[in-house]
Specification:
mainly alpha, elongated
Amino acid sequence: AATDSISLVLATSVFVCALLRRAGSRRFLFFEKYEKMVSDAMQDCVSSRIIRADRKENLYRSIFSRIEEYFRSESPFLDADLNIAEVSERIFTNKVYVSRAISECADTNFCQYVNRYRINYALDCFRQNPSLRVSDLAYMSGFHTVASYNMAFRRVVGEIPSDWMRRTVAIMKRSTCGLDVAGAMAV
């Protein structure tokens, strides 16, 4: 807020100087020697904002990579009670930075980010064991309810779990039959 106020004062000063110069005012002679100084100060202010933005972007990328590593190595998303405070504590930062890092780098919020991991885990579990039911997948992947699992599943995959499961089982059967036929032909 303070830098915004300073920027506004500097911009106003440059604008007034330009108006006085155009108007041919005698007062401009007083401002003329300060115009360059004010203009340089504005340029420094803008440059420092760009540098700060780059630093923030690098900070968020660094935090996001720590979040990703934590999620891949320890699977905290399987805990139905996982919250942003626990994640921030585990990666040694604060909740605001975790939230902003996920928002900036994954273009989503914390809950949707966690749910994406949970859904991908459920997809892998089902591919390994197609006899699992929707409710089994919901609870084992960290959801409190089947309804929340269904909503998250639809958001991530684009269809309801039962339709995806039927389609996946059909594909698995076709690929298994294809391998059996190919294996029988080779013998």
